Amino acid sequence: MSGHSTYEPKNAFSKWLDARLPVTRLVWDSFVDYPTPRNLNYWWTFGGILTLCLGIQILTGIVLAMHYQVGGATAFNSVEHIMRDVRHGWLIRNIHATGASMFFIAVYIHMLRGLYYGSFKPPREVLWLLGCLIYGIMMATAFMGYVLPWGQMSFWGAKVITNLLGVFPGVGQSITTWLWGGYGVDDPTLNRFFSLHYLLPFVIAGVVVLHIWALHVVGQNNPTGVDPKSKADTLPFTPYATAKDAFAMSLFLIVFAVFVFFLPDAMGHADNNIPANPLQTPPHIVPEWYFLPFYAILRAIPDKLMGALAMFGAIGCLFALPWLDTSKVRSMRYRPTAKICFVIFMVVCIILGFCGANKPDDQVIPGLAGFMLLDANANSWVWLSRIGTFYYFLYFLVITPMLGLTETPLPVPETIASPVVANAEKKG
């Protein structure tokens, strides 16, 4: 918590402005003198990295929108025009397209850090819920943006996902028809997706402001999960946290640049470089990589409605997590059993990603089913995705609540400073 303001205006103008619109005081209290736990590690730098990613996406998106032409007959060619004819258009488009993947890499690391260190526990429930809301809006924004190039995978991905909404009884078909703007994926659909894709990043920015506000009200969590008790537990945000964030952002931008300049298509699908053809279905329709675990959950269940409910329920579990976790200890650093289950959870999420990327009937290990005299599909990716889906929900709905009641945690330090001082004494 920020506490009493220490800002003091230095000249007549700053005093005049501070008395009428205390913007400088707000910046000082939030990003200069704000007390941060002294034991924060580099996993905490991804909040700043995500803010950087959002800014990059908004700026490049505005420039791209100046040249993009909405319409089934013009969208694909306008993207090619941006890449070939607009000055530095190839760079702006590569930054924007690669930036979506880098954004999701950063947000998944940020969320996993929150899960591991218990950043969703009281009094940070609203902070966590706002973060989950940002994630949900990000997914919608990314999906609509993926449709805009109007390539083969864009068109058929839009067709599959929007059709999926129609399975919900009562409102499903109405929502699908509204998104389509008619009775199929066509020009009105593209127009709606372009409008929403342009609008939603600014909605994300608004929720990010609320997220930061909530963070400054309840204070930052830290690796020990112990709240600051004195000034010895904290350091000013500047220069300590800002220097660490700046270094992490620099490394992140280097990786970002490697993909932009040398591997711009590494995270996309080759079929999206082919103009959309409603008469030719791709051999295997897949979403972008950051949706693959949820796509695997969808395909794991034979019934379309139940599969859709499971997919959206997988995201809903994140929103319910503050009330599912019953442990009084925040950080898994002091919860050995929870740490093991969490590592398994991460592995399962990666496996679900591979399941979503492969055809459901392909064999995970070719020839294994025949060798074991099983049905040809017994070794398929869909069965592996069912196992992964089972553990995913088991982790949130059973393991997490039960561990809080049965696990015996390790001793938690009294203050943030005590383990820091102890480590310093060992090194000394």
From TrEMBL:
<dbReference type="InterPro" id="IPR030689">
    <property type="entry name" value="Cytochrome_b"/>
</dbReference>
<comment type="subunit">
    <text>The main subunits of complex b-c1 are: cytochrome b, cytochrome c1 and the Rieske protein.</text>
</comment>
<keyword id="KW-0479">Metal-binding</keyword>
<dbReference type="InterPro" id="IPR005797">
    <property type="entry name" value="Cyt_b/b6_N"/>
</dbReference>
<feature type="transmembrane region" description="Helical">
    <location>
        <begin position="160"/>
        <end position="181"/>
    </location>
</feature>
<keyword id="KW-0349">Heme</keyword>
<keyword id="KW-0813">Transport</keyword>
<feature type="domain" description="Cytochrome b/b6 C-terminal region profile">
    <location>
        <begin position="227"/>
        <end position="414"/>
    </location>
</feature>
<feature type="transmembrane region" description="Helical">
    <location>
        <begin position="193"/>
        <end position="215"/>
    </location>
</feature>
<keyword id="KW-1133">Transmembrane helix</keyword>
<keyword id="KW-0472">Membrane</keyword>
<feature type="transmembrane region" description="Helical">
    <location>
        <begin position="381"/>
        <end position="399"/>
    </location>
</feature>
<keyword id="KW-0812">Transmembrane</keyword>
<feature type="transmembrane region" description="Helical">
    <location>
        <begin position="126"/>
        <end position="148"/>
    </location>
</feature>
<feature type="transmembrane region" description="Helical">
    <location>
        <begin position="305"/>
        <end position="324"/>
    </location>
</feature>
<feature type="transmembrane region" description="Helical">
    <location>
        <begin position="91"/>
        <end position="111"/>
    </location>
</feature>
<keyword id="KW-0408">Iron</keyword>
<feature type="transmembrane region" description="Helical">
    <location>
        <begin position="246"/>
        <end position="263"/>
    </location>
</feature>
<protein>
    <recommendedName>
        <fullName>Cytochrome b</fullName>
    </recommendedName>
</protein>
<dbReference type="InterPro" id="IPR048260">
    <property type="entry name" value="Cytochrome_b_C_euk/bac"/>
</dbReference>
<keyword id="KW-0249">Electron transport</keyword>
<comment type="function">
    <text>Component of the ubiquinol-cytochrome c reductase complex (complex III or cytochrome b-c1 complex), which is a respiratory chain that generates an electrochemical potential coupled to ATP synthesis.</text>
</comment>
<dbReference type="InterPro" id="IPR005798">
    <property type="entry name" value="Cyt_b/b6_C"/>
</dbReference>
<dbReference type="InterPro" id="IPR016174">
    <property type="entry name" value="Di-haem_cyt_TM"/>
</dbReference>
<feature type="domain" description="Cytochrome b/b6 N-terminal region profile">
    <location>
        <begin position="13"/>
        <end position="224"/>
    </location>
</feature>
<dbReference type="InterPro" id="IPR048259">
    <property type="entry name" value="Cytochrome_b_N_euk/bac"/>
</dbReference>
<dbReference type="InterPro" id="IPR027387">
    <property type="entry name" value="Cytb/b6-like_sf"/>
</dbReference>
<dbReference type="Pfam" id="PF00033">
    <property type="entry name" value="Cytochrome_B"/>
</dbReference>
<feature type="transmembrane region" description="Helical">
    <location>
        <begin position="42"/>
        <end position="70"/>
    </location>
</feature>
<comment type="similarity">
    <text>Belongs to the cytochrome b family.</text>
</comment>
<dbReference type="InterPro" id="IPR036150">
    <property type="entry name" value="Cyt_b/b6_C_sf"/>
</dbReference>
<dbReference type="Pfam" id="PF00032">
    <property type="entry name" value="Cytochrom_B_C"/>
</dbReference>
<feature type="transmembrane region" description="Helical">
    <location>
        <begin position="336"/>
        <end position="354"/>
    </location>
</feature>
<keyword id="KW-0679">Respiratory chain</keyword>
